[in-house]
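Could you join me in thinking about how sequence relates to backbone shape in a protein? We need material for that, and I hope you will provide a protein of your own picking. Label the sequence line and the structure token line clearly, so we can match residues to local backbone shapes. Would you write everything just below, so we can both look at the same thing?
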Amino acid sequence: MRYKAPRHQRKSKRQRIRRWLISALAAVGATFAVRSAPLSAFLPDQTTGRAKLTYTKVLQGSSPEYLSVSVDRAGSGSYDGRKLDDPPHPRPLKLSDATTQKLFELAAALGDFRAVDLESHKRVANLGTKTLTYEEDGQKYQARFNYSLRREAQELSELFEKIAAVEQHIAVLEYAAKYDHLSLPRELLQIQIDLNNKALADPQLMVPTLDQIARNPRFLHLAQVRAQNILERLQNTN
């Protein structure tokens, strides 16, 4: 027989989750506003010279074929993932202070890409053309490579890729919630796998979307359970 916790314990657990959700939604709160506000509101203010980092990767035949993540020192920026022949469709985002700081620390370790050659110049497979860009006070510095032996370049690319993975999950969940409810359990399972593999950066950005799925009885029970499990997991990692 399956053990069922006493009612007061279940109620206490729900209250804890609810309090965490409130704080998590406040922390990323801006996520709802971010998604609906004009993109220009979250891009660096060029008049103040605020530094901005941009990572792009182009790999034909991959999904997405074109990937771009931009962020300024305040953590505001955008993500765009699409086919090469599709028009740009950037999504605003707001990164955590810790992730933003790590991005700029790695860029600084590479001299903010000033006159640096990051390409390994070795014969390796096509892993996608990656471009790192640093902009500040009207100045722009870039480094382009397919594969780099520099540890900082590898870490910076991986961190940007992990940010992009979170944004891709959000986009898929939002689409599935509107048009393809049956695909939600599969996508939520993939999120759980990515969390296990530490393949996501700032996964708390998914909290508003996960909360909507967990609370909405229109979705499959399995989808609701998986969304709730992910929320509890994110709560426990904070």
The radius of gyration is 20 Å.
